[in-house]
Every structure is written in C-alpha cells, then in structure tokens.
C-alpha cells in the first residue's frame, strides 16, 4: 500500500513537472513581459506595442516556416539571406521594372511585385529541396550554400548599394506598396493581419491535413514514413518552399516599412527564427512541434529584444543573451523528453499493478 502511494505521488510530481515544461514558453513570455514592464521605460506605451508587434511579426513569419522544416528533421539557414534578396528584388522592380531589351520596359503593380517576390522565395526553397532530396546534400550544408548564393545575388543586384525611395508609382499602380509595411486595418498593422492569415494556414496544415501528418512522420522516422507510403521527397520540397515563401513575405514587409531595400537586410534573422521555434517547443531532432508554440516563442524573442534595447543593453550582450536562450530551450526540451519517458513508464507500471 505504501509503495503504491509512493508511486502515485512520484507519478503526480512527474506529471506536474511535465505540465510546467510544456507551458514553459508561455511562462517565459509572462516573466519577460513583467520584467520589462517594471524596468524598461515606456515599455507599456501604445506606441511601443505597435512597434514591437511589427518586430514580432517579422520573426514569427520566419519561425513558422522554420518550424515545418525542423519538424521534418531539417534546418534552413538561408532564410535571412532570402529576406535580403527578396527585398532587393522588390526594390528593383519598383524602381526599374524589367527592361525587355527592345526599347520596352515592363512595369508592375503592387500585387504583381508581391507575387514575383514570393515566387523568388519559393524558388530558392525549391533549390534547397532539390539539393537535399536529389543530391543528398545535408540540410545544414545545402542551406548554408544557398545562404551565400542569395546574399551574393542581393549584393550583385545593386553593387552593394541601397535601393532608396521605394514609394512606388500611381501611374503603374505600385504606390500602395508602402501600405503593406506602414498601413493598418481596424487599428491593427497590416503585417499582423498577414501573420494571422499565415499562422492559421500553417496550423491548419499541421493539424488538419494529411500533409501535416506526413511532415511529422518524416521528422519522427524518415525511413518508416517512406516505407508506409509517405512521399518523403514531396514533403521536404514543401517545407523548404514554404520557408522560402515566409522569408519572401518578410522581405516585402521590411522594404515596405523602410521604403528602401538593402542587400544586408536579414543578416542573422535565421538565428531568431530557430530560437523562436525551439523556444516554442519544436524539437531539433524532428517529429515534434506546434505552430502556436512557435508564435508564442516569437513573442518571447521579440519582447526580449525590444526590452533590452529600451533598457540600453549593448547589442553584443543581446546576442549573448539570445544564445543562452537557445541553449536553455534545447536543454529543457531534452529534459522534457526524459520526463515524458518516465511518466509513460510509471503509467505502464501502474497499469501492470
């Protein structure tokens, strides 16, 4: 009787610890929010919330795409460079159009520019998928290579210079481009509405579609997934193309917000995206993760970054702190897996008795 009581208490403690670990991202968000509310001046102001929401949205877009990639067992280091390249493509189209070489120049409206830029991001994602699935290049190496390719292409597009004054043209229907980054609907920035749409789409794919189940299956055990009929190659193409699409959206939003495009835009953005995904509960070993958790993780990273800036913390220390956050998130994730295994064993032992 005493043993059964002790086992019950032990199982209850393990279950409580597991619940706390699963809620770690939300707890972390509350803690950093309370901390900066006390120590960062004007943190609770409306103006700061608007600015912070825009920053969070940028990281959340990349983190959502990164989540799918990591769940499938991969990694995408190229997203920051895709952001920079796509911003430069948008800037080039706004300023120059496309010269056909026969005395004609094709100009584009806002919607057409956004579609072209999105296709550029998707194409680079497809290149990543091709390198990984057809040429058997490791995801880390493949996306590291496309990181350099995309960044170099961004530099070449302008000789390393900025494309300034991206105000668009009323004549060509591109004057509304600025609205994407600086406009609002019902008092909420357009980028947040875009994030809501992409987040809901990603969550629906992950939870309600066969494709979502296939992504988890590939990350959990790629060989078993293939033997069970899952088209592993198609799944990997999708996750990298979706990640490239999300990066393209960020390139559009930033160039619209700044009314300028610079080839170095997006440098190290991939680190924030990985941090948000891991902090949100996505396992670096693949097969596990949630879109909702990732978005909360993006809020944690965004609040942390903006709060540190408002407190006057050096950018160098900000980088150190983000690194510590990533390591801590991975350590807690591994601890969570051990606790889950222990809870499962305790449950089986209880049933056996």
TrEMBL record:
GO CC annotations on file: plasma membrane
UniProt keyword annotation of Cytoplasm present: no
Membrane topology field: Multi-pass membrane protein
Main location: membrane
Pfam families: BPD_transp_2
Locations listed in the record: Cell membrane
Gene, per the UniProt record: rbsC_22
Regions that span the bilayer: 25-44, 56-75, 81-98, 110-131, 179-206, 237-260, 291-309
Protein's name in the database: Ribose transport system permease protein RbsC
MF terms (GO), sorted A to Z: transmembrane transporter activity
Coiled coil: none
Source species, domain of life: Bacteria
PANTHER family registered for this protein in UniProt: ABC TRANSPORTER PERMEASE PROTEIN YPHD-RELATED, ABC TRANSPORTER PERMEASE PROTEIN YPHD-RELATED-RELATED
Keyword ATP-binding: no
Keyword terms of this UniProt record: Cell inner membrane, Cell membrane, Membrane, Plasmid, Transmembrane, Transmembrane helix, Transport
